[in-house]
Amino acid sequence: MTVESAAEEQWCPHASKLLSLNSELGYRALHSELQKEGFDVALKKVQKYLAQRREKTEDPRKADQSKQQPLTTAWKATEIAGKGIGLVATQAIPGGALLLLEKPVIKTGAESKVESMFAALSDEVKEDILHLHNDFPDQQGISGIFGDRKS
Fold this sequence. Notes:
8% strand
């Protein structure tokens, strides 16, 4: 079922109206609202309709972030007592706003390639990575990522 073919069904204009009033409705809530209005429509149909509708009308907050510029004036790095350096908002930040944009150091779809890609990095970049916050302080270096090896 496409949005176009679903438009022929009687419940679709009502679904569209409900979504125009509340674009954050999930498929279960939309299904419930349609049932309250007397429409006997399968939950799966509503789910499929909503997914296809959202694909066609992409949420601008989820747009390709490579095209967005980060709001670097919306925050500042500040020392937070007992916690280190943190980012603190300097103004109201809209939901979905891009605050920070960095290129990945390593990008691969194959986990098996990460170790060799890490090894190929400059010593300076490796050192920077190894100085990042470690949620596992009992583990040294990159162990836990690549097993028991240490770098």
